[in-house]
């Protein structure tokens, strides 16, 4: 990377223009308009990279982006205003405020699975926070990357927002620079690399990672509805979703019924798309081969068909999978769903607790006690009760992981908070000056003890 870009952005940031709230709102509107104008081209790029249909592209990429921008524009004036907070009696005469200060120059490194939305949604937060931004799109989705670069260069000056395209060496060069904030979405392994690089400058980070997110189907769940929603959440984007259910634990009393309903809903939701060649493809041959190898780790009871020329694997369900097999040692990130059965809920809770905290967890039950036991008793980033994936589609909920599944959160207010520093300011009176802090003695100590109660 040419370090002149970083200097150019830092110099522009210190001019102060990006701090103005009216300026930020104007830039958010410009971004939304630019995406709207290029909507057809962006959908075409997503089809070329991942074979996403227009409907799926809008549902998972463009729609959430529009919603996020609109929500932030509406609330930004209130969020950005300094907030007066209480001051203790020990500080009598003073006033306390919290200011949201932009970080400066932010780096956003985007993944390939939702290459538009996961590149631009963090930028929305960066703009709202008053920062300058460098965006590194994924090289694995080159058409979308090219479109993002064109959109940004035509809409914003390079000193404000810029796109740097390239492969691994480009990311390494960017991470060697001293940014003021880094926002990364991707795998756990690369997240560790990003964090290590950031530690050299003690640069704050948000890491949106992944993990093996479970779905748990209780015997009191509405089994057909649970199957439908799990099928949709799992096989959307060919399973290449960070919060997709990675595996299912279903109560043994309803397992057979559940698998039958999985089969029905897979056919209902995806058979036509597969026949028409409209089902999303696996991003690369390397990932395709990795997923095919997982099909050897148990019994394929639904699906298993694949087409190498198109990099397509049909939605597949597996049983008789063991935890020591490769499929259960890493995030699957594809259209392959292992199903396990259980007799006691504590068995499932033990399995989840013994492993790194997942990014998401999904509970299907009509029993409030079961719901509370799982939601309150298991560590995970976020999730749903009686649904999948939809918790990340609301700007009113923070989205982020825990432990190995990530750190920090964004969406809505949390995006603004992520891209700002909460600066504490105490404004002291000059009308009087209490002598207590200057003098030491027995009387002073008595007064201080009362003040600090």
Give a written overview of the molecule:
By secondary structure, this protein is of the alpha/beta class. The protein has two domains: 3-209 and 403-425, Aldehyde Dehydrogenase, Chain A, domain 1 (3-Layer(aba) Sandwich); 214-393, Aldehyde Dehydrogenase, Chain A, domain 2. Helix content is 43%, strand content 18%. The protein contains 15 helices and 18 strands. A seven-stranded mixed β-sheet has the order 10-13-14-9-8-15-16, sandwiched between helices. β11 (306-307) and β12 (312-313) form a beta hairpin. α3 packs across α4 (54-80). The model has no long low-confidence stretch (mean pLDDT 96). Residues 19-425 form the Aldehyde dehydrogenase domain. GO terms for molecular function: aldehyde dehydrogenase (NAD+) activity. This is Aldehyde dehydrogenase. The active site is at residues 208, 242. One of its GO terms (biological process) is aldehyde metabolic process.
Task: Give the topology.
Layout: H1 3-14, H2 21-37, H3 39-50, H4 54-80, E1 83-85, E2 95-102, E3 105-109, H5 117-129, E4 132-136, H6 142-155, E5 161-163, H7 168-176, E6 181-185, H8 188-199, E7 205-208, E8 214-217, H9 223-235, E9 247-251, H10 255-276, H11 285-294, E10 299-302, E11 306-307, E12 312-313, E13 316-319, E14 336-342, H12 345-353, E15 360-364, H13 368-377, E16 382-385, E17 406-407, H14 413-418, E18 420-427, H15 442-451
Parallel strand pairs: 3-4, 3-6, 4-5, 6-7, 8-9, 8-15, 9-14, 13-14, 15-16
Antiparallel strand pairs: 1-2, 2-18, 7-17, 10-13, 11-12
Helix pairs in contact: 2-4, 2-5, 3-4, 3-6, 4-5, 9-10
């Amino acid at each position: 990377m040419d370090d002149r870009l970083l200097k150019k952005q830092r110099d522009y940031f210190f001019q102060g223009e990006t701090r103005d709230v009216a300026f930020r709102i104007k830039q958010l509107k410009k971004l939304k308009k630019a995406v709207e104008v290029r909507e057809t081209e962006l959908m075409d790029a997503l089809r070329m990279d991942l074979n996403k249909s227009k409907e799926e592209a809008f549902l998972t990429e463009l729609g959430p982006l529009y919603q996020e921008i609109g929500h932030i524009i509406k609330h930004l004036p209130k969020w950005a205003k300094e907030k007066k907070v209480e001051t203790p009696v020990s500080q009598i005469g003073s006033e306390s405020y919290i200011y949201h200060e932009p970080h400066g120059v932010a780096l956003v490194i985007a993944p390939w699975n939702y290459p538009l939305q996961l590149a631009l949604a963090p930028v929305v937060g960066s703009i709202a926070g008053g920062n300058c931004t460098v965006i590194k799109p994924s090289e694995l989705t080159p058409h979308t990357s090219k479109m993002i670069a064109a959109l940004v260069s035509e809409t914003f000056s390079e000193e404000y927002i810029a796109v740097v395209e390239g492969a691994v060496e480009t990311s390494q060069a960017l991470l060697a620079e001293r940014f003021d904030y880094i926002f990364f979405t991707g795998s756990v392994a690369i997240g560790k690399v990003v964090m290590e690089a950031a530690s050299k400058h003690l640069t704050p980070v948000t890491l949106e990672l992944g993990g093996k997110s479970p779905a748990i189907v209780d015997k009191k769940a509405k089994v057909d509805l649970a199957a439908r929603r799990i099928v949709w959440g799992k096989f959307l984007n060919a399973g290449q979703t960070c919060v997709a259910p990675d595996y299912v634990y279903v109560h043994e009393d309803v397992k057979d019924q559940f698998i039958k309903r999985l089969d029905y809903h897979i056919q209902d939701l995806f058979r036509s798309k597969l026949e028409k060649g409209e089902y999303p493809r696996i991003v690369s041959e390397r990932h395709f081969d990795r997923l095919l190898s997982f099909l050897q780790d148990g019994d394929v009871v639904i699906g298993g068909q694949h087409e190498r020329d198109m990099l397509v694997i049909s939605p597949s369900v597996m049983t008789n999978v063991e935890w020591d097999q490769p499929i259960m040692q890493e995030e699957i990130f594809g259209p392959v769903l292992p199903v396990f059965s259980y007799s006691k809920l504590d068995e499932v809770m033990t399995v989840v607790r013994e492993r790194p905290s997942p990014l998401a967890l999904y509970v299907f039950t009509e029993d409030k006690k079961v719901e509370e036991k799982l939601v309150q008793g298991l560590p995970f980033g976020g999730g749903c009760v009686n649904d999948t994936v939809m918790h990340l589609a609301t700007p009113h909920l923070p989205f982020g992981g825990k432990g190995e599944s990530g750190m920090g959160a964004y969406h809505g207010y949390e995006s603004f908070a992520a891209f700002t520093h909460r600066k504490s300011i105490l404004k002291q009176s000059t009308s009087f000056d209490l002598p207590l802090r200057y003098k030491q003695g027995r009387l002073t100590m008595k007064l201080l003890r009362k003040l600090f109660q």
